[in-house]
Amino acid sequence: PGEIEAALRSIEGVREAAVTVRTDSGEPELCAYVEGLQRNEVRAQLERLLPGYMIPAYMIEMEQWPVTPSGKLDRNALPAPGGAANAETYTAPRNVTEMKLSQLWEDVLKNGPVGIHDNFFDRGGHS
Q: Where are the domains of the chain?
C-alpha cells in the first residue's frame, strides 16, 4: 500500500491519497482514497505507473478525511467501498441487453444496482 500511495501522490492534481487493504467481500482487496482528481483520471494515470496487480480494486473520491484526535488519518474510519462516497449517479438499464448485463455484473460483483455508466473495474471487478 505504501508504494501505491506514493504513486498516487506523484500524480499531478492529487492533493491527498491513502490506500488500505479491505476484506469486506471476503477476500483482500486494495482500496484507494483520493482527493483532487476524479477516480477515472487517477486510474488512467496510475495504470501507466504501476503493474496491473497493484491497481486498487476501488477508487473512492474524498472531500473530507477522518482524523484521530491527534490529527492523523484515521484509516479505520475511511468509508467502505460501495458506500455513499463511491456512488455515482445511477442510470437504469434501458433495454433487455443492458438489463441482462447489469444482472450479470451484480451476480459477479456481489454489489448493486449496476447502472449503464458503471465501470466494471471501478466496481471491484478484476480478471
A: 2-79, 88-127
Residue 25 near residue 67 (C-beta atoms within 8 A) = no
pLDDT band at residue 93 under the 50/70/90 scheme: confident
Judge: domain 2-79, CATH 3.30.300.30. Answer: yes
**CATH numeric code, 88-127:** 1.10.1200.10
Dihedral sign from CA coordinates of 22, 24, 27, 31 = negative
Query: For residues 44 and 105, what is the distance between their CA atoms, to the nearest angstrom?
Result: 22
Spatial CB neighbours of 46, under 8 Å, sequence gap ≥ 6: 4, 7, 8, 11, 55
